Structures are given as C-alpha cells and as structure tokens.
Amino acid sequence: MTRLAPTPKPVHPMVPDIEPKTRSWTPMHLLAIALWLIYVSLGFYLTLHLHYYAGDAVSRVANAYYVLYGRNPHLGAIGFIWNPLPSLLELPIVSLYPLVPAVVTKGLAGIFVSALFGAWGAVHLHRILTNFSVPKPWSYIITLIFALNPLIALYGANGMSDIMLLSCLLGTYSGVLDYLTTHALRRLVSAGIWMALGLGMRYEAVPFGALVIIGLMVAQWKTTKPEIWAGSAMILGAPIVFAGGLWIYFNWAIMKNPVYFLNSNYGNLAQTRTGAYLTPALDHAYHSLPGTIEYVAHFLLLSWPLALALGIMFFFLWGRHLDNRAVILLSGALGAILLEIGFAYVGHLGSWDRYFISFIADGVLMVSFIASKIGKRFAHRKLPAILWWTTMSVLLLSADVGTFIAAQNPTIGHPDGIVMDYAWQNRSMQYLSDTFTRAAPVIQYLDHHPHLTVLADAFNAWPIIIRSKNFNRFIITSDYDFASILHNPKGRVAAILVPEPTGVASLDAVNRVWPQMWAGHVPWATLLKSFPGGANWRLYEVTPQAP
What we know:
single chain, mainly alpha, 5-stranded mixed beta sheet, 24 helices, 5 strands
C-alpha cells in the first residue's frame, strides 16, 4: 500500500505555524515568582510596619468589598468611574475578609494583585529583550534592574493600578514586536488582548492603543499588501474596541449615561475642576504648549537615559538603519503619556509622578534596543561583548539611582519621593500617609454607637466604612436606595455623615443635595458630633422634621 506524504502546511504572511509550543519552566519563571514574593513582602512591610497606604489602591479594594458585603451585594457596586479590572481581580482575595479582615481594612488584597502584574511585566520585558537579541545572561540582569527600580518596586508593592497598566503595555509591545519579527498571528492576538486588559486598568490604554495600531500600519506600509497591514491593525484593535464598547454599554444600561465615567460628578474632570490638585507647575502648563512640554519633560529625569535614547531612536526610522520595531517603541512611548499631555494642557491633570511611570520602561526598552543594534558588531568577540553589556547594565542601574534622586524633587516626585525617603530611613508614615489616621476619631465614635444607622457617600467616607465594625449600618452610594434616602431620610436613617465642602469633598453627594448641612443650616438636622482635622467630618442626626 502506497504511503501518502504529509500534507504541507499552508504558508501565509499573516498565518505562519500556529501550533501550540510545549512550554517548560525557565529561569525567567523562577525570577517572576521571586519578584512577586519581593513585591508582596515589600508591600506588607510598608503597610503593616510603616503604616503606608496608597489611598486610591485601598479605595479600589473598598469597591470590591461593597460588591460582596454591602447591604445590596451586586457587581455594579464596583463603580463606573475608575476602570473596573483591578477591583474585579481583587474579589477572590476580598472574599477572605471574614477570615483575614486586613485584606480589606489594610488594603492587602490590592498588594497581591499589583505584585502579580509587577512580576508579569518583568516577564513581558524579558521576552522583548529576547526579541531584541540581547544575550541571555544580560537579558536577565536588565530585567532585574528594571524590576527593582525604586518607583517600579513601590508600585508593584502598593496595590495601585499604574503597574497593572504598565504590565499590559509591555504585554502589548511584546506581542506586536514578536509579530513584526516572526509574523506569528497568535502573538498579534496576544498583543490585542493585553491592550484590552490595559483599558480595564486605566484609560491611558486608549491613546496608547491608537498610536500603536497606527505604528503597526506604518511599520508594514511598504513591505506588505494593504489587506495584510489593514487586517493586522483590525486584529490588534478589535479587543480594545470590544472592551470599550462593553464599558460604554454598561455605563448606559446601569447609570443611564454612556459616558458616565467621563462626566460624572466623581470623575477626573470633576475632581480637577475643583482646583484641589493644581500646582504652580501645572498652572504654568495650562493652555500653554511650551509650558506643557516643559512640565512633561521634567519627568524624563525618572529615567535619564531615555532622553538620550529618544534622539538616537530616530536614526532607525529610515535609510539603511531602518527597523520597524523602532516605530512601535516610539509610537507606544508617546501614546502612553498622550492623555497626560492633553490633561496637563487643559488643566485636568493631577500632579502625580506615577502618571509618567512608563518612562522607566521606555528607557530600558530603547536603551536595550539601541545597545543590541550596536552590540551585533562584536557579538562573536567575547571580551568586547562582555564590556559592552556591562556598560549598558551600569547605565541602566544608574537610571534606577537617578529615579530615587529625581523623586526627591517635589515637582517630579510627588507624592512618592517622600514615601521612598521614609521607607529608606525605616520611618513610620502613619501621619504622612494619613488616610486612616485622620478618619480614626470618626471610626472610634461610630464603633461606640454600633446601632446608629448612618448615610455616607463612599466617595469620601470609604476609609471610615471599611474599618467600621458594623459595615451594614451604613447606607452608601452603591446601595439601591441611597439616592432615595438622601432626599427623604425621615424614618429611614438615624444620621448623616458629611465632610467639609472644600476641594474634592465638595463633590460628596450629601454636599451636593444638602449644600448647607455641614455648616448647620439645614433645620431638620441636629449636630451629634464634630470631628476636627482631616476632612472635618460632622455627624448630623435626622430629626422627625426631615422630609
């Protein structure tokens, strides 16, 4: 019997061999596990020993807490202002609250998630370095230098979404760069998924994704047919478009406003409109293109080699040095901060260094890319190669030192420069990071009156809510009947907690519905207790004369 020859696999520039490859443990997997343990340990040390809390991180844990343990448990309690994925990922850990209350009351749930993405980001970075043909021993060293950068380590350990977004950006870079090199369609799909996950973390993923998609089309413009570069752009962009559409739909279906996340009373635009985050540097950038560029340029000091690398990268955009990967790196670097540039110009940016944390990754990527290009000239000469990559590693290590030094400048390192300084000195941050310290008198009073039902807007009151011994005594923003009780509290709630209506506290729902309550000018509300300091909380009893 004649034996048939195997059918050859179809060859197509968009669809090369897509059979799954057998994966085995590598040193990078072990390094990732070690980094996760380092980040978690650092987070526990900062939180439990030095009393450091990143307020936004713990508030996202609070959102997950409301989903599972509120008066009306429902997924919508996660909120529709900030991107939902961090809180969604924290839900399994928050479910352990009855056994380990600290996962909520100290925000430990967020630390586990940010540590995971910090380690995952290192895996992505290492894969990119492999794409650049960085020699294996040095690819691990450079990955470790990046992972232990002071700002990267801090955000891997504090539960914030910034490192989660950065990991997604690196995952996108990795997939797109691999696709350009190998034409492996599965890597392009992977990049699209990571881009969509980035939108689940932060809105910066949208301009980043747009520019990377444009960069991908430009990179293939002259080398592939139109249907190829157009198709690859659609494959890359489809997941984030779908994810964005879902987010808009859920905003419309639940909040009755498709862009609630953008124009809500609690959103970024509303908060910055209060002027609470305005600084002289941001005021200088307001409606001034040179001022905006100057403001953003300050943050290049977070990774000083990036400024040098940016100039050199343009040599790889044309001529005999053309490398399409440079297009992706440059378009992505701009896209990652494009939202910040726009917000700085129109006056809606907070003065936080974390908005430019991508500069640290960009510095490592571009320096490594340039170094690999130059290093090819003596790749087969052992001593010169060792000297070259040692020099590059020292250069990147100096960037880590530069991050710490630059963060001591209040303009560049707000608010994390002083956090790094205190951590280095092993000093308590109880009164520096005083999210809970300022709320302690309110918590103590309410715990001494456990049967007092209280209405409070979780936007400001979340530190009080998650540390109270009796959570279900609160009527909070995500409860179905919150708005009804706020307008007609008689017989439905015993007291209302209201912050002083200054800064972002002016956005508090109580202050918007009853603007004179804090000052004591609502006739049916009687002051029970005043809590000076911090948000200057006041607790008012609801009398029978209330509506």
